Structure prediction request, 181 residues.
Amino acid sequence: MQFPLHSVFLALPLEGQAKWQFQAYQEALKPFADILAFQNPASPHLTLQFWPSVMEIEYPSIMEQAKKAAEAHVPFDVLIRGAGTFGSRGEDKVLFFTVPFSEPLARLRKSCPWPLDKPFSPHVTIARIRHPQRFNVVKKKVMKELATASFTTHVDTLRLYAEVNGNKQTPIQDFTLPPNV
Prediction:
């Protein structure tokens, strides 16, 4: 790996059935592909922590803290239900699945030692909105497609991702939560 690493984040990957459901909803939104820049369907995830860049000296500490966070929790399920948008200045910039409050998820995030620059708002990004004005015209149709979204993802792994050789969201390392004994 070449340092500094860019666009580094620790996340909960959606795997198996949850990943297939994520991809099916993206497929249903394909008619809006000229307005939406879809999240990579191979790596849907819920981000716990993001670093714009990581220096080589910081990397071992991040790896160790991620390992400790994973080892302190047992696997659990997270509900993903409904969709929303966020942005700024009245323009939607991101389309996402909402994640209702989850005690195990809140405890997991709280065990991460890194400060957040804004409150933790768990979500799963579906797409970035390329054309906010054009999106406003079709927003009701898009949200109707996602209105019935409801599925769970099983959390048994934390995954560290980074941009590697120009490839964003490249998995770097998995940290497995110990089995529930």
Observations:
- The domain at 5-176 is CATH 3.90.1140.10 (Cyclic Phosphodiesterase; Chain: A,).
- Residues 132-146 form the longest helix (15 residues).
- The first strand starts at residue 5 and ends at 13.
- Helices lie at 16-28, 59-71, 103-111, 132-146.
